[in-house]
Amino acid sequence: MILSIESSCDDSSIAITEIKTKKLVFHKKISQALEHSKFGGVVPELASRLHTKALPQIVEECKPFFPKLKAIAVTTEPGLLVTLIEGTAVAKALAIGLNLPLISVNHLRGHIYSLFIEKETQFPALILLVSGGHTQILEVFDWNKFNILASTLDDSLGESFDKVAKMLKLGYPGGPIIEKLAKQGEVNIPFPIPLKQSHKIEFSYSGLKNAVRLAILENRYSKEDISASFQKTAIEHLTMKLKKLFKKGYIPKNFAIVGGASANLVLREELNQLAKKYNFNLLYPELEFCSDNSAMIGRVAVEMYKNKEFINYKELKVIPRIEFKKLKL
Ligand code: KG4
Ligand code: ZN
Questions:
Q1: What phi, psi does 288 have (nearest 5°)?
Q2: 259 CA to centre of ligand 1 in angstroms
Q3: Within a 13 Å sphere around the CA of 115, how many CA atoms are in the beta-carbon half?
Q4: Does pLDDT of 329 surpass 80?
Q5: Which ligand ends up closest to the CA of 47?
Q6: Crossing angle of helices 206-218/157-167, nearest 10°?
Q7: Rounded CA gap, 191 and 101, in Å?
Q8: Residue 323: per-residue pLDDT
Q9: Residue 31 belongs to what H/E stretch?
Q10: Distance between CA atoms of 241 and 137, rounded to whole angstroms?
Q11: Peptide bond into 192 cis (omega under 30)
Q12: What does pTM read for this prediction?
C-alpha cells in the first residue's frame, strides 16, 4: 500500500491506496474552508499552521496500516510554499521512520488521476483542468506524457468564482456558493464573453470579474441575478473556446473535466451537450474527488511506484509555481 499526503492549499488530506488493486482503503480530508471563509480566500500562513495540527492527527489514524506500506507519496508542486512544506515534512518523517521510498507527486497530475480512482486509466484523453489555481486544456497520453494546449492569461475559473463571491460578500470557497445562488437568479445581465472575437485557444477571467464589479456598483441587480449571469458567461467562455478547439480537429475520443470547478453541475450539463454534439466520451471525477484530495495523489503514486519513480528524502523539494512549455495552436 501507498500512503499519500496532500497539503498544497487549504485541505489536509491523507489516503492509503492498495498498489495491486488500486483500491482506496483509507481516505480522510480535513477542510479549512470555515477558517478561511471570513477572509474571503486562503490565508497561506494560517493554512500552514492548520496543516501542522491536522496532518499528524490523520497520520495517527493510519497507524494500523503502517506494516503494509511500501511507499510514501506527497504533493510537492505546484501550490502554496508554506503549505507544501508541511506535507513534505510529514512525508519525510514517515519515509525515514518507516524506512520507505518517497514519491514526489505533481498536483495537476493528481487532478488528472482523480478520474481513475479505483479504476483503470482511459488514455489518450483531452482534459479540461478547472481549479482554483489553473484553467488549462491538456492532451494526456500517459502519467508522464502530456501537452498543454491552452491556459488562462490571468485568473483561473475557480478563482473567478471566489473573487465574485468575495465582492458579493458571500464567503469562501465561492464556487459552490455562487452555483447555489445562481439557481434562484435570472440571467439578465449581458456580461461580455471574454476573448469572444479571438481565434486563439486561451482563457481570461479578469475582464469578466471587472464587469461583475461594475454591475455590483450599479446597485440595481440582486446577488442571485449577478451569480446566474456571471456563471452563465464564465461557462460560455469555456465552451466557446472548446468548440473552436474541436473545429481545429482536436475532437477527442475521451474528454474529461477535472479540478475543483468540475463539481459545477451547470458546467457538467453544458459539456454533456457538447459530448452529444461531437460524439465523444465524457469523463469526470466523482463529486468528492473534484476538489483537492489525497486519493488522487495516491492514484498517480501507484503508476509512479510501478515505474520506480522514487526520490531520496534529501532531494525532495517543493516548487510553488511551475511554468510548463506551452504548445502553440
Ligand atoms: O481543485 P481545487 O480544490 O484547488 C486547486 O487546486 O486550486 O479547486 C478549488 C476551486 C475554488 O476556486 C472553488 O471555488 C472552485 O474550485 N469550485 C467551484 C465549484 N466547487 C469548487 N467552482 C465552480 N463551481 C463549483 N461548484
Ligand atoms: Zn487542486
A1: -70, -15
A2: 7
A3: 27
A4: no
A5: 1
A6: 20
A7: 52
A8: 54
A9: strand 24-31
A10: 10
A11: no
A12: 0.95
Best CA proximity match to 154, nearest among 206, 111, 112: 206
What is the per-residue pLDDT across 126-183, written as a single tens digit (0 to 9) for each?
999 999 999 999 999 988 899 999 999 999 999 999 999 999 999 999 999 999 999 9
pLDDT band at 322 (very low <50, low <70, confident <90, very high): low
Q: Measured from the CA of 292, which atom of ligand 1 is nearest?
A: 3
What the block records as the C-alpha cell of 164 is 465574485
Q: What is the dihedral of CA 151, 242, 178, 108, to 10 degrees?
A: -40
Backbone angle region of 79, left / alpha / beta, with phi > 0 → left and psi within -120 to 50 → alpha: left
Dump the DSSP string for 179-243.
HHHHTTS---S-PPPTT-S--S--B--HHHHHHHHHHHHHT-S-HHHHHHHHHHHHHHHHHHHHH
Confidence (pLDDT) at 328: 39
For ligand 1, atom 10: residue with the closest CA: 132
